[in-house]
Sequence to fold (490 residues):
Amino acid sequence: MRPYRELAGQTVIYGLGTIIPRVLNFLLTPLYTYVFVTQDFGIITEMYSYIAFFMVLLTFGMETTFFRFSSQAKDPQTLFNNSFFIVLITSAIFLLIALAFKNSIASIIGYKDYSIYIEYLALIIFFDAIVSIPLSKLRLEGKAVFFSLIRLGNISINIFLNIFFFVICRNSENVFLHSLYNENIGVGYVFISNLVASFFNFLILLPSIFKFRFKIEFALLKQMLVFTLPLVFVGLAAMINEVGDKLFLKYLVIPKEEALSSVGIYGANYKLAILMTIFIQVYKFAAEPFFFKHANNLQAKELYSTIMTWFVIFCLVIFLLVTMNISIFKFFIDEDYRVGLFIVPIILLANMFLGIYYNLSIWYKLSNLTYLGAVISFIGVIITILLNFWLIPIIGYLGSAIATFVCYFSMMVLSYFLGQKYYTVVYDLKRLFFYFTLAIGLFIVRYFMNISGIVTDLLISNLLLLFFIAVVFYHQKIQLSNILRFIKKS
Fold:
């Protein structure tokens, strides 16, 4: 049980540093949706899609590469120097190009009068990319608490500034405070707040950054680049699959004047899947170094199989928790955005498939077959592009949700079959399929129930959720005494 307790303990610590910030960050969604019209929230959604895409490009897959070579490098400092050097070069080049051509870039994406947005985004991306390796170093060293505190500080500053500008200054009767809010800047305050928070991360991690030396071991650097280049394509493909739908909506929705509004509605409802995305991100933070650490364990494959079963169980519980309580979750967004609530179950399942894919992807990382990961991701990109171009003009943002679902499902299936060929792990498919079928069945039963009254609705819905959990307890032969003993030893 020791490896499971280790992963659970790390997940809890990373969870405190990820769940709390993400939950706090999620609270910005109701703030934005209640303050901004759907078109303005569409701008925010679009801009953060660009940030996510370029973060993958500039970090160059170095986080995973840093973990992969940590057990092989003779000198940890040399590994840090090599990793940070690559990210520093790519980030510096990006920042110079973005600032030099900000007006042209703004015109290309349709914001020719708001080139200042490009400056904000370029600086946010630069500072976030620069700290990626120092943060990875903290994870590798097991300094999960410090890692979590940094993330918590970052989001706390971001949230405070958002509340300061949009709640305090915007509505203040005090002349000085009200003067600090300019209606013409509007959504620009969102990016200003983020920039200050990103700069905070940079300042906190300066001591670690100053340890960098231009002493590059080029033989190691070559090996790292060979390993990481396919991961760059994997990461870029993943970002196209993750954020491409928001960008496609802007250019493919018919009529054009409803494009940004559709992006805003889609982005707001996508946020309601926050519990699933938080769990997957927290798990990924803890699982990636954990999987590499236990790769040489004789029972590693059995370990991976058991972890997969529990991962799917938790994802299905989250799926039911959100869908069974959608009448509560809907109040996190303004009424104008709730027309898109029907996409939430689709997005939840799509993200669950993505999480399963992350679990499965360990096979090509351990087998040094990262190019196959790139192939899978490239196929996912093709599916994303084709389905978005086909479906968005016909059914709008529902087409984006379906494209996301099909993309992640296809990647999951491809990764499973290729993994069984190159790094066989015997997963308990019968049990996994049973749990999945049961969860979907309960969701369908609830969907077709005609229940009047929110209290009755919530009572019946959550009884169905508890039924699912009870079945899991029975099938997994879980006893409360064992759970308490597990927590105590953790």
User: Anything to note?
Assistant: The mean pLDDT is 87. The radius of gyration is 23 Å. Residues 2-489 form one domain.
